[in-house]
């Protein structure tokens, strides 16, 4: 890391602090008024956030905001690179200018709080830090009043929620910010589009020992809202000093794809804390629950038994699929439970498989075939037996878990998730959080967090069919800006819109098969699901692409994107490149410049929507050709369609 200490501050006499991005396009300006600290953000001299007050309200109406004095800020430039074990890039650059701004109460206890600000070329981040001090040892936070006075009446794209108890699985709304009613709870990430196509997304990074942040309008001003601790009369956070909040992150660019490419969120997290990573492997997994546990005509009774698992494990081994997931059968978990609808009963025990299900035998067979075994668990059945269960799973040789139905992001649940993640690493287990809040970059620190849900996904095709191509194109610019996004992808039964119907087994899909192939490149997730059953894939056009596409990447670029309309994402693994393009319900023609390729010739395997996909959406055209970085491809995407390319260096 290179530190360049700045020796002076502009307009110091006015207690104004200005931090400029390395490329000079973004400026964060801080000012201390009598009533509160305020900040503003400009991009290319265009004000995006005007004077916005910052304050904290502690228990007993003890506020931190008015009557403060400004200590001498410390400024530096940071320029470093770091490697990600799993991520959208292998090596990321953390390049920013930072200011640590001390704020001290003028009267009374003279408590000190530091506002730390980092300004990158593609955004801004700031957080509140509570240094250790003799006159302040702990706090109980009732409100964090971080505000965002957005200018120019931007268009908002966000998920609105009725309350804080949520799996975050809903449809995104596009609406003028001015038209959002006061007190409407807005999930993050939320995207705001300003006139002239300047984009600003608000989210958070490094959520540790704190409550998750939402947004709401109060008296017309966009304001942070924290998830409250259960049953504690509105208390949001309890902490012992030293302590710090998560980073409040503003991703900013005049190119929508730059927000997807940004590495700010991982740059704001601590480096990897795991020393032994030899056991950790990203990859793809089955998930039989989605398809209804379909098996072919068999000589065995399908169910909670070795033979059913063996059928899926053999399929994985034959098709380079890294994991098989043991989930449930006939609506019952794989472990003992006397609950209903997967909710743990009083005698639920995640250390006791159902009679007839030998998990040791399944793990041993998976190991023989080179396939890892994972299992689904309900979090509240797992957590009381965390150490006992993880030790047993490690003994069996299990590879990881999907931990489900968490549905909260108050400080208590945030700490539970981080504890699960850390304990899992001790026992060589990866984690997939389901029914959970958005990611905040913790996969840099604990790369055994391979993915998390927090979005409406294809599981809903089993009961609502809400996940359409129009929805698919919304979350690369919203939810996915926070990081890996867990989806029940890989359904191979697309039907025309008028023929879609709800099927709990063998669910149907909207859009085209090429749309589904491209989603494996568009979506960032280090554990991708192939959710359909083996015979749905065998011999099917496009399945070869799914067996080849990686789940973690050396490089990611977004050469073309229009919010809510289409996106093309290119990702590199070694010397291979994969390209995925999806559109909404509008058919369109895209041009893809291959200038991201290094010099030399490449064999391109192209998967395109067939001419008859309006009637037969599973049809595709596959073509092989030689290309180089000077080529420009013109591709046609049908309504709800897609296009996928695998490029191999010759």
TrEMBL record:
<dbReference type="GO" id="GO:0016798">
    <property type="term" value="F:hydrolase activity, acting on glycosyl bonds"/>
</dbReference>
<dbReference type="InterPro" id="IPR019563">
    <property type="entry name" value="GH97_catalytic"/>
</dbReference>
<dbReference type="InterPro" id="IPR013785">
    <property type="entry name" value="Aldolase_TIM"/>
</dbReference>
<feature type="domain" description="Glycosyl-hydrolase 97 C-terminal oligomerisation">
    <location>
        <begin position="552"/>
        <end position="647"/>
    </location>
</feature>
<comment type="subunit">
    <text>Monomer.</text>
</comment>
<protein>
    <submittedName>
        <fullName>Glycoside hydrolase family 97 protein</fullName>
        <ecNumber>3.2.1.-</ecNumber>
    </submittedName>
</protein>
<keyword id="KW-0378">Hydrolase</keyword>
<dbReference type="Pfam" id="PF14509">
    <property type="entry name" value="GH97_C"/>
</dbReference>
<dbReference type="InterPro" id="IPR017853">
    <property type="entry name" value="GH"/>
</dbReference>
<dbReference type="Pfam" id="PF10566">
    <property type="entry name" value="Glyco_hydro_97"/>
</dbReference>
<feature type="domain" description="Glycosyl-hydrolase 97 N-terminal">
    <location>
        <begin position="19"/>
        <end position="271"/>
    </location>
</feature>
<dbReference type="Pfam" id="PF14508">
    <property type="entry name" value="GH97_N"/>
</dbReference>
<keyword id="KW-0326">Glycosidase</keyword>
<dbReference type="InterPro" id="IPR029483">
    <property type="entry name" value="GH97_C"/>
</dbReference>
<dbReference type="InterPro" id="IPR029486">
    <property type="entry name" value="GH97_N"/>
</dbReference>
<feature type="domain" description="Glycosyl-hydrolase 97 catalytic">
    <location>
        <begin position="289"/>
        <end position="454"/>
    </location>
</feature>
<dbReference type="InterPro" id="IPR014718">
    <property type="entry name" value="GH-type_carb-bd"/>
</dbReference>
<keyword id="KW-0106">Calcium</keyword>
<dbReference type="InterPro" id="IPR052720">
    <property type="entry name" value="Glycosyl_hydrolase_97"/>
</dbReference>
